[in-house]
Amino acid sequence: MPYTVDVALAAPLWRALSYAVPIELVNLVKPLTRLLVPLRGGQSLGFALGKPVVGDASGLKNILDILDEVESAQACPGELLNFYQRAASYYQTPLGQVLAWSLPAGLGTARPKGGKIPKSEIEFHISARQGMAKNLPRVGTQADRFLRILQKDGPKPLAELRKTFTQAGALAKRLEAAGWVEIHQKPLVRDLLGNPVSHEPPPEQLNPDQTAAINQIHTVMDSTEFKALLMFGVTGSGKTEVYLAACERALHKKRQALILVPEIGLCLRLEGLIKSRMGAERVAVLHSGLTPAARRGQWMAIARGEVDVVVGARSAVFAPLKNLGVICVDEEQDEAYKQEDRFRYNGRDLALLRGQEQSCPVVMGTATPSVTTWHRAQRGDYELITLPRRVKGAALPKMSLVDLRASGKFKAGFLSSQLYEALKKTVAQGNQAILFLNRRGFAPALLCPSCGKTIGCPCCSLSLTLHKSGGRLNCHTCGYTRPLPPKCPNCGAKGEELKPLGLGTEAVVERLAELEPGWRIARLDRDTAGDAAGLREILGRIAHHEVDVIVGTQMITKGHHFPRISLVGVLLADQALAVPDFRAAERTYVLITQVAGRAGRGSSSGLVMVQTYDPDHHAVRAALAHDPEAFYTEDLAERRFLGYPPFMRLVSLRLESAREQAAQSAAAHLARHLKLAQQHLGVKGQVMGPAPAPVIRVQSRFRYLILLKSPSAATAGKVLRLARHNAGDLPGNVRLRVDVDPLTIN
Ligand code: ADP
Ligand code: ZN
């Protein structure tokens, strides 16, 4: 009897295709089993949408192979089928592509590549035996020295002894046999970059706010139902301990925990904490700092059920855990949760969806909720937990405003006299300061004074950013890079005359070093800390107080805990406000509050100086007053008036083509069908545009935008599906990018 199965292909296909299943494979195919199937003369990865069923297989092709190691585990557990289906539908992306793109490299392609799983490492600790045998090794021998060191210093890891004794392993074995030492095996507590993890000890006592928060979460967890909670806790209120307690509770109940963090730096810290508290054995991490093989290894260990706690960046929301007891989302507002290419999802929102599908609570923690999350908590959709105080009675930093319109001359071109004085005082007292400027490179443009033009990217309608240390001009949008030109490419004027315009972190460091040669200055941005190793190195230097002043982009605003930082200077608070975007105010409020949150976390109190040309802006005012209520109330009123989220759902549609005319007319055509679809379905809403994108040309393609506003996600989906169907296929030279719940409209 022939068997068939429906398969979602890792291809831009909206429908599943049916395949015949050879009889010997029938029992091996389950929901979401990865399959190799023939497609248009080639082969493709696909995912079974159920178990094979008896049916008419005439005309169907056979599946070729099964790619999962069946006896152990599937890379995508069948339990997640519903979750994946809802995610695909919500984000208007074909299911097979969603599945393939959610997997680590090597698992999401048609090539059957297993990926070796690293064995959990063992660490040997050697200790001298108490009250031991009488005949000690002969004085002066290696064995004698070995033993004396252990007696003097106490137990030591073998790795450390190897530095002194080349044959440390053999020596230890011999001494063990003679009854002089003991060898203990311990799982090696390392993070996956190979560094031993830091042992941040637990606080002696949780404070009453933390205890109350934990109780609230435990109560919800006991009901084993989905519920979303917003843990609104000021910076430094000890939210991490609350996540840890939630994880412990999940483990206690024989369930699993998933912690999402927005970026690697925070991943490293949490990984260390969890491994040292709960043991390294059953913890996995998933982030882009891992090699592809390590990532596959972690993934498959989770799939085989060897892991209870997963810490990871946004893509960890797909981790193949089958028995989730809690999901924690740290810094839920963070834009890093948004995946901006291929499958454009928001990790925070998918965490909520996953919580619903797997009946487990989702705890979102932050000092600065997104405006939408705040609104939902106010409305009662999310249960609110508050941590209104910093731990150990530390005060929130003192905020002070520097009105740049009235501040006369700047030191080094960017420091008001107030901020300069505060910096000097901080360094003199042996404390550390942060200077925050959200722009990397030396200068965002290089201007030719004779023709008056800046040097632009050949592929984008943007200026190139000067990176002085590398002697290059880079496009921050498409990655184009070129050496500094000997002369102006526009008019041929001499290169020496080209003038940097504006200010980036690299210039701040250079000028500050000229101003104060004695200061130890570090730069923390994507150029200096682009990979996990660079980031770790700089964070380590800050932690060990090898740095006085840290100049950084938003990378420094996130979650770090450095007790010696007592001053934070925001060089230009209005920078984000200048962007034409409905979230500009939110971004500004969050950035100021978060970077301010790095100050005064230790014993000395913190001071934050905010330089701005726009001191009356509601985001700036509220951040300075530590008044979230004021910010959210005003911003929500504005968004309600203008019809933006959370009051309307947005979908941005971007049409791109190398030919401007083609992009423009395809956009007009689609916009018309969107309007017709709204009318036909009788739904409220609005179609805005098409309009040229803020940066109209990127990577040699012209961009036109349409913004679809809908009262709900469901109506947005219906309108889009109908309009895309009726509009028919796009011309071959036009590409459409659909972004559901866009964070930036570009
Ligand atoms: P948040 O994430 O809320 O900004 P963290 O969780 O990073 O704050 O905690 C800040 C610091 O306070 C950490 O070093 C942490 O170990 C410490 N801490 C947390 N809870 C307590 C407590 N109850 N007593 C003393 N120190 C604590
Ligand atoms: Zn470019």
Structure description:
By secondary structure, this protein is an alpha/beta fold. A seven-stranded parallel beta sheet has the order 12-13-11-14-15-10-16, with helices on both faces. Strands 1, 2, 3, 4, 5 and 6 form a six-stranded antiparallel beta sheet that branches. Helix 1 crosses helix 10. It starts with a strand and ends in a 6-residue tail after the last strand. Residues 112-122 have low confidence and may be disordered. It binds adenosine-5'-diphosphate (ADP) and zinc ion (ZN). The site of zinc ion (ZN) has 8 residues, from loops.
Question: What is the topology?
Answer:
Blueprint: E1 3-9, E2 17-21, E3 34-39, E4 42-48, E5 53-54, E6 65-66, H1 81-90, H2 95-102, E7 122-128, H3 142-153, E8 156-157, H4 158-164, H5 168-177, E9 181-187, H6 208-222, E10 228-233, H7 239-252, E11 256-260, H8 264-278, E12 283-286, H9 292-303, E13 309-312, E14 324-330, H10 347-357, E15 362-366, H11 371-379, E16 383-387, E17 398-403, H12 417-428, E18 432-436, E19 445-447, E20 465-467, E21 472-474, E22 481-483, E23 499-501, H13 505-515, E24 521-524, H14 532-543, E25 549-552, E26 565-570, H15 584-596, E27 607-612, H16 618-624, H17 628-642, E28 649-657, H18 660-681, E29 686-698, E30 701-710, H19 713-727, E31 735-740
Parallel strand pairs: 10-15, 10-16, 11-13, 11-14, 12-13, 14-15, 17-27, 18-25, 18-26, 24-25, 26-27
Antiparallel strand pairs: 1-2, 1-4, 1-5, 3-4, 3-6, 7-8, 7-9, 19-23, 20-21, 21-22, 28-30, 28-31, 29-30
Helix pairs in contact: 1-10, 3-5, 6-7, 15-16, 16-17, 18-19
